[in-house]
Fold Polyprenyl synthetase family protein.
Amino acid sequence: MSSAVPFGLPEGLASDVRERLAAVEETLLSSVRGDDPLLSEASKHLVEAGGKRFRPMLVLLASHFGEPDAPGVVPAAVVVELTHLATLYHDDVMDEATVRRGQESANSRWNNTVAILTGDYLFARASDLLADLGPEAVRIQARAFARLVRGQIQETVGPAEGVDPLKHYLSVMADKTGSLIAVSGQFGALLAGASPAVVDTITSACEKIGIAFQLSDDILDIASETEESGKTPGTDLREGIRTLPMHLVLEGVGSGPDDARLRELLVTDLTDDALHAEALALLRAHPAMDRARADMRSWAEDARAELMTLPDIPARAAFIGLCDYVVSRTG
């Protein structure tokens, strides 16, 4: 696991975050060890595959608005990462994925049943840790988990008749991605004893950062010429997943000589390489990409505006640096 963060931190803060991320990693590994060999191996599969530990890092940063050494902070960081990892096991089953974080996915290595039950086990381990953090933390986590499930179901069934597909998409993103990132900031500030106003501000800003980050991933999936997004460019197109730029095209945002053809392609099976390449080229050149970037920047700027109301400490600068990084990812 890399403890590096993709944006600058003041040196003292960076040192503290690295040190406590090491404690998070140690607790993560101990949390997934068990008596059953298969369950232990499957549980460690994604923990040991690495990742940036983005959500735990947010917990640790937010704790600096209170007492960062408060006893509940590191366990809370472990809780959000276990929850996140559990959702990945379930996502891979639903998506029939074969690779996760550069390694064979659990459902591919074993089978769907093992992957689902491993995800359930990680949820249980998170709940065990959560019980020591008090009823309010349990309630926050339960409500976030409800949002995660709701977002997944809404994504699966699609928008109801009469519901704007773009609004539905943004709602799904807020529930599936924004909710747990919001809880990461909320846990860090709350368990460190920050004031209610600070907790509320960090929670709201982190949800916006989460949405902006997902939007930037959507843009990179189309715009990147390499696999900088972590996926082969155009993966969403090929899999029929409609993201923000595609919704904007279908809603008639922007105009170009090939609009009709692009809209036709976006409602077509794009597993054919030639059709996929044509759709990707047309989408990259479409004005909807600029509009998607503007929408993503708007979410990041709204988060920044909220963060600027917080006390002027290094942690605030770190959160604002994160807003800037999200915007810079897409050029």
Q: What stands out?
A: The chain has two domains: 9-159+178-193, 195-331.
